# Entry
Amino acid sequence: MNSRDLAVGVFFMSQTALGMLGNSALLCCFIIADFSGIRAKPTDLIVKHLTWANFIVLCKGIPESIAAFSQTYYVDYVSCKLVLYFHRVGRGVSLVSTSLLSVFQAITISPSNSMWASLKVRAMGIVGPSLSLCWTLQMAMYAYVLVYTTDIKGERNITRIRFFEYCAVVNPGRPINILTLILLTSNDVMFLGLMMWASGYMVFILLKHKQRVKHIHRSQSLRSSPETRATQSILTLVSSFVLFYVISIVLTSYMFALEATSRWVSNAGVAMAACFPAFCPFLLLRHYTSISRICCPSSYQTTFYACFVREL
# Structure
């Protein structure tokens, strides 16, 4: 085993372990909240689905680590299809769930006189159906993976085949590759744009609220305002998400464009796809573990921020 394979294996193993730990801790927060009798918000359901999708994405790090440490490791025919298929589905659900979370949060904190006020009651009632539709669409969209994925050891009369670490993918040809690339990229770009729009709207609402209560924050000059902290959290979450997924989209597009297999591009694509699922729970834990420390005086300004953090 050379130093490159060792570094790749250690990286995937560390990323997978860290992500599993963070997502498990986030699920524990929900379990504790359920047993404590804390009323769950509709957006909590989105975060739960996001967490399970993160688990699915991170599971691909296990065979990647084994393949890096052992050069003779291969996955059987059925397992190969399932690993690649559910990895793509989990990545898609993670993207769509984060976008849905941003949209529902934006609707929740919108002022009562805004055009979104009428959607507040109805939006919370369609969280469940939206998540069901999300899983269904992603499973249907990536069904092609089940068709074109095969194992390495199987002796099949296939001329155009691309070998990866432990699996192989049949190359259907440039026209189908281009069509698939356009479909998948359009899906990713659409939901990334939706999330950025919703997050920008939330930042705009928070900054407007900060201006209205500026006189209160003058007496709290030693610490940042609640709106500033919430804005920083939103920008951190969105910036990291967009960065990782844009790099993932670029690497995936490059893989489709290549006729041959590039090992480092394949490893980089898997690593980038798992970066946000690995670090996302730690960003969300900041909100869910701080709920118990939020006090709600009678003033509208403090209540606004407390409710916003609970929704986030």
